[in-house]
Design brief:
The protein is an alpha/beta fold and about 270 residues long. The protein has helices at about 15, 20-45, 50-65, 65-80, 85-90, 130-135, 180-190, 205-210, 210-230, 245-255, and strands at about 120-125, 145-150, 160-165, 195-200, 230-235, 255-260, 265-269.
Length: about 270
């Protein structure tokens, strides 16, 4: 007996309303997907040689936690943005006005400044990214020291850094300084109040002229002094100038390594 056959039945407006085709289609799609998932899982267990008792136990276990799985699925769907029914999008939606404004351009971002006790090693064929870091960080320290073959131009004539020019044997200008001599000139800047921001781009020269072991000891001393005095160290080096084992040992000494050798741009490791 249907509802319309019962005594005293009165038709309502809901009975005259057309069926919700969208709801029925969505329900049927979910019902189909549920059956498909269950049959695939059952087929997978059967193909592994499960016995009837094992299959029965597996099915009973899934049935016991079915409500929990359905509730988890419901919650995951509720986290997604709610979409309007398709009929509302066709009949009730208002046309969108075209955007006529101007989108703000993204601000240009430079490298993050280096802080006290930080040590950064930059892989690059020539000093570029390390100089950018130097410019971004110089205002955070009371003094700036450059240990360089060709001291970089910082673009500000008011800055008066302490420059330790290191020249290879036989070259014009200052004589070649050993790592020990450079360390002796750096000590006063490290020990001064507030420490110093130290820039170094002569590690490849020291490896060639003094050997890898002495250069690694010099780099380790620089890092220890920076951390003890609250200073910072930025070093630029070309990894092609060192053996792979020496380059790896050098990089492991630093707190962070920045790769600026790839054409696509620098990648922080």
């Amino acid at each position: 007996m249907t509802a319309s056959d019962r005594p005293g039945y009165r038709p309502s407006e809901a009975d005259d309303a057309p069926a919700d085709e969208e709801y029925a289609r969505t329900y049927a799609a979910g019902y189909e997907e549920g059956l498909r998932t269950a049959l695939r899982e059952l087929l997978g267990h059967a193909s592994r040689g499960r016995t009837n008792q094992e299959l029965r136990a597996l099915i009973q276990s899934r049935l016991a936690r079915l409500n929990e799985e359905v509730d988890l699925k419901r919650r995951s769907l509720l986290r997604s943005p709610r979409l309007h029914p398709f009929t509302e999008l066709i009949h009730g939606a208002q046309p969108l006005e075209p955007f006529r404004g101007t989108l703000p351009s993204a601000p240009a971002r430079g490298p993050p400044p280096v802080g006290p006790k930080e040590t950064v090693l930059v892989r690059e064929s020539r000093p570029e990214r390390a100089i950018d870091l130097l410019r971004a960080s110089r205002a955070r320290f009371p003094r700036l020291v450059l240990v360089s073959l060709r001291p970089p131009d910082l673009g500000d004539p008011t800055i008066a850094p302490t420059t330790i020019a290191v020249q290879g044997p036989g070259g014009p200008g200052a004589p070649h300084l050993s790592p020990g001599e450079v360390a002796g000139q750096l000590r006063a800047s490290f020990e001064a109040p507030g420490g110093a921001l130290v820039y170094v781009d002569v590690l490849e020269l020291f490896v060639t002229e003094e050997g890898a072991e002495l250069t690694l000891k010099f780099a380790r001393w620089l890092i220890e002094q920076a951390q003890l005095s609250g200073s910072a160290l930025i070093a630029s080096y070309d990894p092609r100038a060192l053996a792979s084992t020496d380059a790896g040992r050098l990089e492991r000494l630093f707190g962070s390594v920045v790769d600026h050798t790839a054409p696509a741009g620098p990648q922080v490791l």
